[in-house]
């Protein structure tokens, strides 16, 4: 599995994401162009999609929302998200059966 979207840092693990807002439900779609693609069930207005992105990532990886931070792309579909204190192996295990 190509995991170019995952990077280990001293603070935790960063994910490169492509967000598709206004979806019927929030879900992991797969990997596309070196980024993890996620559909988000929120519109891209007033930070709603960012809040749902944080909530979804926290739930997906078993973290509290306070440990998920958008580092880049707050106003873009392409984002870099930090999973504070997360370990690469744990994140890979969470994604194991979900990413083609």
UniProtKB/TrEMBL annotation:
Name of the protein: UPF0235 protein SAMN02746041_00479
Homology family: Belongs to the UPF0235 family.
HAMAP family reported for this sequence: UPF0235
Organism: Desulfacinum hydrothermale DSM 13146
One GO CC term, this protein: cytoplasm
NCBIfam families (UniProt xref): DUF167 family protein
Domain of life: Bacteria
């Amino acid at each position: 599995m190509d995991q170019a979207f995952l990077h280990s840092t001293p603070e935790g693990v960063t994910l490169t994401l492509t967000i598709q807002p206004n979806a019927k439900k929030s879900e992991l779609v797969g990997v596309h162009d070196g980024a993890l693609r996620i559909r988000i069930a929120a519109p891209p207005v007033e930070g709603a999609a960012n809040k749902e992105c944080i909530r979804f990532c926290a739930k997906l990886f078993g973290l509290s929302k306070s440990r998920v931070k958008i580092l880049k792309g707050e106003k873009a579909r392409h984002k870099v998200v930090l999973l504070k204190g997360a370990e690469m192996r744990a994140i890979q295990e969470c994604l194991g059966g979900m990413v083609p």
